[in-house]
């Protein structure tokens, strides 16, 4: 059954986030040959419209307003509701990002439809569109079929392969004028902590440190390895609580959920709350002095040893590649 599917493209620092392209790939499956409409919301975002088309969108609608320069749930929901009102889509796909997690339930409520949140896969099986999503902190997966209403889903970053970029693809980028009013929150400025290197939630390689790194400086060998592999540094809550690093690096149940291609856990015991955020990584390597550490139960490769000896050795070896 061909469907029209709307996809929200997420913009950060003037560029489209990767998850936008993954969402288009998911939308193609939902559309079953129908139309995929990209949506860009913000200020001066229309120049990014063609890039969404290069990754598979058929056309793009932009809603631009200075009041949308920063994300607010009120402003974005007004913009999206106007697009949805105009397009009457049968499917809506967002990334399962901080923005997507915040906005999608609000819109689903307004649309009086259900929401499949945090999907890691979707496929057509037996004539049905079947979503897979982790439950119980990633210890099990459930399959979901939407039987009624708009198919509204958020997809977890780094799980669905984007389509290959095709710069020959063309499509219409049209603006929709929406009066953004009655905002209950106005963001005047965003003061960001200086973030180093790759965005943790979209990183393909993560080197994570736990209480075993023992100090702020103990993260230095992990940063060097991350630099060599083009990855990001993450942390357990143990390391954050001990003040070795910032909470923005925390991975787990109460931190970020990540699914990189490679996750190297250094000096992390593998508490269930940490596993909730990383156990779906494609390849997990654990480095721990304690052969009984729980992290080895989820690791594809385990190295029993001192991280301060093992990590620099790995860095030297990877430098040779
Ligand atoms: P530890 O458990 O102290 O482990 C340190 C490990 O380092 C040990 O296994 C030790 O053998 C090893 N080690 C020490 N020195 C070395 C060395 N030189 N070389 C190699 N290995 C070494 N935790 C999270 O991570 N994320 C969350 O989101 C999260 N949310 C939580 C939510 C709730 C409600 C609660 C109650 C807890 C949560 N926790 C979370 C905390 C969690 O239960 C653990 O306390 C925490 O993950 C432990 O961090 P850790 O593994 O770094 O420290």
UniProtKB/TrEMBL annotation:
Electron transfer flavoprotein alpha/beta-subunit N-terminal domain residues: 5-190
Entry cofactors: FAD
Xref: PROSITE patterns: ETF_ALPHA
Pfam families reported for this sequence: ETF, ETF_alpha
Gene3D superfamilies registered for this protein in UniProt: HUPs, TPP-binding domain
Co-factor: note: Binds 1 FAD per dimer.
Record has Glycoprotein as a keyword: no
GO BP annotation list: fatty acid beta-oxidation using acyl-CoA dehydrogenase
Protein's name according to its UniProt entry: Electron transfer flavoprotein subunit alpha
UniProt organism field: Rossellomorea marisflavi
């Amino acid at each position: 059954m061909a469907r029209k599917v709307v996809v929200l493209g997420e913009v950060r620092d003037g560029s489209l986030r990767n998850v936008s392209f993954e969402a288009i790939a998911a939308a193609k499956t939902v559309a079953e040959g129908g139309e995929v409409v990209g949506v860009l919301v913000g200020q001066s975002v229309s120049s990014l419209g063609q890039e969404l088309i290069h990754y598979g969108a058929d056309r793009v609608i932009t809603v631009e307003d200075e009041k949308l320069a920063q994300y607010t749930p009120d402003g974005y929901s007004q913009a999206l509701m106007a697009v949805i009102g105009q397009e009457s889509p049968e499917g809506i796909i967002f990334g399962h990002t901080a923005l997507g997690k915040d906005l999608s339930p609000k819109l689903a409520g307004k649309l009086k439809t259900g929401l499949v949140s945090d999907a890691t896969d979707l496929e057509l099986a037996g004539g049905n569109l079947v979503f897979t999503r982790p439950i119980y902190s990633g210890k099990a997966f459930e399959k979901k079929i939407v039987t009624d209403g708009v198919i509204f889903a958020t997809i977890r970053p780094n799980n669905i392969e984007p389509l290959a970029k095709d710069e020959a693809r063309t499509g219409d980028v049209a603006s929709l004028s929406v009066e953004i009013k009655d905002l209950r929150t106005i963001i005047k400025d965003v003061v960001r902590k200086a973030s180093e290197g790759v965005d943790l939630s979209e990183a393909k390689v993560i080197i994570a440190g736990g209480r075993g790194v023992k100090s702020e400086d103990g993260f230095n060998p992990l940063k060097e390895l991350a630099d060599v592999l083009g990855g990001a540094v993450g942390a357990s809550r143990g390391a954050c609580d001990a003040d070795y690093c910032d909470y923005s690096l925390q991975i787990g149940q109460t931190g970020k959920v990540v699914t990189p291609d490679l996750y190297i856990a250094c000096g992390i015991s593998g508490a269930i709350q940490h596993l909730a955020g990383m156990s779906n990584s494609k390849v997990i390597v654990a480095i721990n002095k304690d052969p009984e550490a729980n992290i080895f139960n989820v690791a594809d490769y385990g190295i029993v040893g001192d991280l301060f000896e093992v990590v620099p050795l790995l860095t030297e070896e990877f430098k040779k590649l």
